[in-house]
Amino acid sequence: MSAAVPPPADPAAAGEMAREAAAWCALHGLVVGDRADPRSGTVPGVGLVHAPFSLLPAHLPEPFWKQACELAPIFNELVDRVSLDGNFLQDSLSKTRQVDDFTSRLLEIHRKMMEINKEENIRLGLHRSDYMLDSETSSLLQIELNTISTSFPGLGPLVSELHRTLINQYGRVLSLEPKRVPGNAASSKFAEALARAWTEFDVDSAIVMMIVQPEERNMYDQYWITKYLKESYGITTLRKTLTQVEAEGHVLPDGTLLVDGKKVAVVYYRAGYTPNDYPSEAEWSARLLIEQSSSVKCPSISYQLVGTKRIQQELANPNVLERFLENKEDIAKLRKCFAGLWSLDDEEIIKTAIEKPELFVLKPQREGGGNNIYGLDLRETLTRLQKEGGDALAAYILMQRIFPKASLAYLVRGGICHEGLVISELGIYGSYLRSKDKVITNDQCGYLMRTKVSSSDEGGVAAGFAVLDSLYLT
Ligand code: ADP
Ligand code: MG
Ligand code: MG
Questions:
Q1: Annotated catalytic residue 419
Q2: Within-domain flag for 404
Q3: Which CATH number fits the domain that encloses residue 371?
Q4: Ligand closest in space to the Cα of 460
Q5: ipTM of the complex
Q6: Residue 133 Cα, ligand 3 centroid: separation in angstroms?
Q7: Ligand nearest to C-alpha 312
Q8: 3: which of 207, 208, 294, 407 fits an S-S bond (Cβ 3.0–4.6 Å)?
């Protein structure tokens, strides 16, 4: 991550390579819906454009890669353990709930499930833990752990393939070897975990229901999972919005969820992580209905709450990991990747952040990119919230700002190749499946590199800040 592969010195050569790469994307399904076409988010096969990508993979020293891979099963286990402690989740988020409506609604469903002693015997997690390499300390630090709707398991592996193809073709000129781009099986591994959960559910006629947004330009990323489920396991995927689930779904007395007349074995959320996905009460009742059913939920409401920024920050407090994990080495490995994280009941840290806002990131309880506050905005927001008093500060956490080393790379977006100073964020996918006392799957399963110009604070690809990338081990 510290330095991208030296690009072809000649910009014309880079431009030619970018054209070939963009054609490869079209031929291999490395595509997204084009903003310019109004139908591209609703009608499959219409208005496609190649996904934004980096022309060559980002460099990463192999020890950091190994470290990140080793962390995946430990985080998987941690999420599962924390999810079982309902009171811990409720207590840690109790202040947040008073000032953040969205978190409060999630907690309300969670509390209802606690009241009826709802048990999830089959638990499926498809996570992605994101990291940046801090150049000052030369350490791999976690940005966040995503437990709901982790994006790009479908397209990520294609970028690795694209980069290998380009290196095969141009490797000698570039002095690169294709085998230094690690294999990436995120799409087939995610499908495998979903299929195994379906098998545990054990109803032959049942389907996987993917919860989607009504408009989704990243639908091809999702269709890759659908394709593997069908082709490798014969399992049908139904795409439904939460609004449709409310209209078409009900739960039988034995707990079976029926949607559109079909039994649902697994609910795979690719929506439901932002307040925008709940425009009315209908979507919240759909969420509650699903939670009450016996379907396997990926994720359950508890798994989703474990992925909040506030829980990330709480887990970094002294002696908290020890409540959930026994293995001391595992605990030490996790702690090593934690950056500084603070809740805003700490007056000292607020003072420091107001004095030196460039060293911090202010984060609300949101997902999907574009929500964080930096620099002078951070100073202004903290000063204002502090003046207002009350609990408004509880809607945020503070995080140490991580500074990856910037390097030059070519980024390709909409058929145009730009050279820029960039930084990268490494995501490691993890899959976890448990049936009662038996852990069926606990794996690292592929990766996603995202690269953005170093002057941009935010990192989302769908949000338009970053491009998809892969990695080159050094
Ligand atoms: P989200 O859940 O919205 O993706 P993140 O915590 O991942 O929220 O933050 C969004 C982006 O902001 C990240 O992809 C990264 O580019 C940037 N970012 C987040 N935390 C930090 C940090 N501590 N230091 C530097 N950049 C950060
Ligand atoms: Mg996130
Ligand atoms: Mg993120």
A1: no
A2: no
A3: 3.30.1490.50
A4: 1
A5: 0.99
A6: 15
A7: 1
A8: 407
Residue where a domain stops, chosen among 399, 421, 448: 399
183-197 b/e (C-beta count within 10 Å ≥ 16 → b): ebbbbbbbbbbbbbb
Residue ID of nearest Cα to ligand 1 atom 17: 458
Q: Are residues 469 and 373 in the same domain?
A: no
**Same domain, yes or no: 226 and 301:** yes
In a domain, 1, yes or no: no
The number of CA neighbours under 13 Å toward the Cβ of 15 is 4
pLDDT at 5: 47
| DSSP string of 410-440, one letter each residue | EEEETTEEEEEEEEEEEEEEEEEEEETTEEE
Q: How far is the C-alpha of 56 from the C-alpha of 317, rounded, in Å?
A: 39
- CA 473 to chain CA centroid, Å, is 23
Which pLDDT belongs to residue 191?
98
Closest CA to 170 of 29, 13, 52, 23: 13
Q: Provide the 10 A C-beta neighbour count for residue 116.
A: 8
Is 336 a known active-site residue?
A: no
Which among 103, 356, 361 is the best mutation to test ligand 1's pocket, defined by most ligand atoms within 8 Å of the CB? 361
466 lines ligand 1 (CB under 6 A): no
Query: What are the distances in angstroms from CA 414 to CA 19, 33, 359?
Result: 11, 11, 34
Residue ranges of the chain with pLDDT lower than 50?
A: 2-5
Same domain, 285 and 329: yes
CA dihedral 223, 224, 225, 226 (to 10 degrees): 50
Closest CA to 162 of 467, 388, 474: 467
Whether 287 and 308 share a structural domain: yes
Q: What is the pLDDT of residue 463?
A: 66
Residues 353 and 389 grouped into a single domain: yes
- Are residues 246 and 258 located together in one domain of the fold? yes
Q: Which amino acid is at 314?
A: E
- Indicate the pTM of the whole model: 0.96
Q: How many domains, the chain?
A: 2
Is residue 309 part of the annotated active site? The answer reads: yes
142 strand-pairing partners: 131
Q: Which domain holds residue 245?
A: 11-340+410-473
Distance 31 CA to ligand 1 centre (A): 24
Instruction: Say yes or no: 444 and 345 in one domain.
Output: no
Which residue, judged by its Cα, is nearest atom 23 of ligand 1?
Answer: 401
Q: How far apart are CA 72 and CA 330, in angstroms?
A: 11
Would 420 be classed as within a structural domain?
Answer: yes
Burial class (CB in 10 A: 0-12, 13-18, 19+), 371: middle
Is residue 185 a part of any domain in this protein? yes
Q: Are residues 277 and 382 in the same domain?
A: no
